[in-house]
Amino acid sequence: MRAVFVRSKSIRLKHRFVLDNLKLERLAYWYYIVYICYNAYIKIEGVYTMYEIKEISPEEIQQKLEKGEKLELIDVREDEEVEAGMIPQARHIRMNDIPDQIDAIDKEKETIFICRSGARSGNVCAYLQDKGYNVVNMAGGMLDYNGETKPKSQIV
Prior knowledge:
Helices cover 26% and strands 25% of the residues. It contains four helices and nine strands. Helix 1 packs across helix 4.
């Protein structure tokens, strides 16, 4: 095992990561998420760029699903969370697995990301939007969703 020390002057945080068969891309992904959480902007060669993430309310999603619209929904919560209930039309890809399964997401198609409160899915949206994906965050997450839910094990 090897310890790596990462320090950023712009966010003044020190993180100690222990690398044991972790991919550097995953390490970079988590560092990026910490950076996004701390600042709503990223400094690129002296220019600050604001990330405007599109959002949709749980009520809007529920109405669209009731009308029979086909939506691309991805739930990024952990296994035990989706077992408690998820939107039946959604796919489950844990937040940690997004970098490994990025090819499973259509870059051109609008994809709505879901989590418990909207924070994790917002971070995933920022990460993917930076890579050129068409993403939307469900604001308020499953805490605000009142539509039909099923445990993941009951979804075929």
